[in-house]
Amino acid sequence: MLIVEDEPVGIASLVGILGDACELIISQNLAEARGLLSGEIDTVLLDLYLPDGSGLVFLNELRASERYAYVPVICISASDNTRDIEEAFRHGATDYVLKPFNKTILSSKVSTFIDLKRKTDMLAEAALIDPLTGIGNRRLFNQQLDLEWRRASRQNNTLGLVLIDLDHFKQINDQHGHAQGDLCLQKLAATMNTSFARAGEVVARLGGDEFVALIPGADLQSTVLAANNLIQSIRAECQSCPKRAKTCTPFTISVGCSAIQPSSLSNAAELVEAADRSLYEAKEDGGRNCVRPLF
C-alpha cells in the first residue's frame, strides 16, 4: 500500500491501523510518491493537500496511466467540504475517508478494495491466457507487440518474430483423436515456454495450431538461431515419446522468421506479414521442422 501523507500524526495513525495487515510504503510529497510507484502497489491512500501540490494532480496521473488506472485510490482529508469530496470523486477517487481516522471503517475499506484489486488482476490475467496451453493468447501477443514495437523504436533496437504452425494438425486429429491433438498443442506450448525464456520474450497461441514468439533485441540471424533451437527441442521431445507413453503422438512444425528495426516508416504489421510469408514458404517445402527466414 502506498501512503501519500505529509502529517506525522496522520502517518503514525495509519501505521497503527494498517501496519500489521499491509506492507506500507510511505511518502510525504508527490515527487517522492512518483518515485515509489511500482506494479506491486495494491492500493493508494492519498492526502488531498501536500507540500508540493494537490493530491488530485497525482490522482489524475494515476488514472491516465495504463498501469495504474484501476488501482484503488482512497483520498484522505480533514475536509468534509462537499466541493472537496465531489472533486475527489470527479477525478477518479475510489473512496473518501475523513481524518481523524476511524479504525474499523478504514480497515474495512482497505481490506475490501485490496481484495477487489486482486480479483480484478486475476480476471485481467485470465483474459490474456490461452486456457488449453496455459501460454498467452492473441490478445496478449497484440498488446506485447505494440509495447515492444514502441520500445524498440525509441531505443533504435531490433525486434524478431517466430511464427509456428504444427504440421498436418487435422490429420493428427482425424487419425489419433482430438485429445491427442490437444496434447500435441500443449507439448509445443511447453517447449516454446522453455526455448523462449529470456526476459522480454513472449510466446502465445494465436489460435488453432498457430503459435508465435516475440524476441526483443533479435536480428534475423539470431531469430533464425532461436527458431532452430526450438526445432531441436521439439525433435528431442518427440523422439522420447515412444519411451514415455504409447499414446504420445510425435509431430513436426513449420516455422517462419522475420526481424525488423522499427521506425516511423514501418509498422508492426509488416513484421507479422514477413514472418507469415516465410511460414508459407516453409509449409510449401513440406514442413517437417522446416525453418524459413525472409531475407
Keywords:
295 residues; alpha/beta; Rossmann fold; Alpha-Beta Plaits; 2 domains; five-stranded parallel β-sheet; five-stranded mixed β-sheet; 12 strands; 49% helix; 19% strand; elongated
Structural class: alpha/beta
Strand content: 15-25%
> Under CATH, the topology of the largest domain is which?
Alpha-Beta Plaits
Order of helices and strands: EHEHEEEHEHEHHEHHEEHHEHE
Going across the biggest sheet, name each strand in turn.
2-1-3-6-7
Count of domains: 2
Biggest sheet: strands, sense, closure? 5 strands, parallel
| Strands, count | 12
Query: What is the radius of gyration?
Result: 26 Å
Helix content: 40-55%
- The CATH homologous superfamily of the largest domain corresponds to Reverse transcriptase/Diguanylate cyclase domain
Question: Which outline best applies?
Answer: elongated
Compute the average pLDDT.
93
Unreliable segments of 5+ consecutive residues? none
Fold blueprint:
Layout: E1 2-4, H1 8-18, E2 25-27, H2 30-36, E3 44-47, E4 49-50, E5 53-54, H3 55-64, E6 73-77, H4 82-90, E7 95-98, H5 103-126, H6 138-155, E8 159-166, H7 169-176, H8 178-195, E9 202-207, E10 210-216, H9 220-239, H10 241-244, E11 253-260, H11 268-284, E12 290-293
Parallel strand pairs: 1-2, 1-3, 3-6, 6-7, 11-12
Antiparallel strand pairs: 4-5, 8-10, 8-11, 9-10
Helix pairs in contact: 7-8, 8-9
Would you give an account of this structure?
This protein is elongated. The protein has helices at 8-18, 30-36, 55-64, 82-90, 103-126, 138-155, 169-176, 178-195, 220-239, 241-244, 268-284, and strands spanning 2-4, 25-27, 44-47, 49-50, 53-54, 73-77, 95-98, 159-166, 202-207, 210-216, 253-260, 290-293. It contains 11 helices and 12 strands. Helix 7 (169-176) crosses helix 8 and helix 8 (178-195) crosses helix 9. The protein has 295 residues and is of the alpha/beta class. The protein has 2 domains: 2-126, Response regulator (Rossmann fold, 3-Layer(aba) Sandwich), CATH 3.40.50; 138-293, Reverse transcriptase/Diguanylate cyclase domain (Alpha-Beta Plaits). The strands form 3 sheets. The protein has a 5-stranded parallel sheet with strand order 2-1-3-6-7, with helices on both faces.
